From TrEMBL:
Residue ranges the record marks as coiled coil: 52-107
Highest taxon of the lineage: Eukaryota
Record's keyword terms, sorted: Coiled coil
Protein's organism: Gossypium trilobum
Name the record gives this protein: Uncharacterized protein
Length: 108
C-alpha cells in the first residue's frame, strides 16, 4: 500500500489573492459621508411631533398670558373697589356739606 501525502491544494499566491478579495468586499466608511455613531443614530422628529412641540410651546405662552391677564383683572377690581370707597366718602362729605348749608340758611 502506498500512502500519498497530501499537502495544501492551494498555492501561497492563491491564498493571498483570496484574502485580498474577501477584504475588498468589506465596506469601509468613506471620508465624504463619515458620521459619528451619535449622528447616525439620532432620531429625526416626525412632522406630527414637530407640530405637537409647536402646539405645546404656543399653549404654554397662552397660559402665561392668561395668568397675566387674570392678575391684571384682579388689580383692576381692587382699583374699582378703592374708587367706589372714595366716591362713597366724597358723597357723604357732599351730603354733610349740603346739610350744613341748609342749616345755615335756616338759621339766618
Amino acid at each position: 500500500m502506498k500512502s500519498l501525502a497530501m499537502g495544501s491544494m492551494t498555492t501561497h499566491e492563491y491564498n493571498e489573492w483570496w484574502v485580498k478579495r474577501i477584504n475588498d468586499n468589506v465596506p469601509r466608511p468613506s471620508s465624504e459621508k463619515s458620521q459619528s455613531i451619535e449622528e447616525h443614530l439620532r432620531v429625526v422628529p416626525s412632522e406630527l411631533e414637530i407640530i405637537k412641540q409647536d402646539f405645546e410651546k404656543r399653549n404654554a405662552e397662552l397660559e402665561k398670558k392668561i395668568e397675566q391677564m387674570e392678575e391684571e383683572k384682579m388689580n383692576l377690581r381692587l382699583d374699582i373697589d378703592v374708587q367706589k370707597l372714595e366716591v362713597e366718602k366724597l358723597m357723604k362729605g357732599k351730603n354733610k356739606a349740603e346739610e350744613d348749608l341748609d342749616d345755615l340758611k335756616t338759621n339766618y
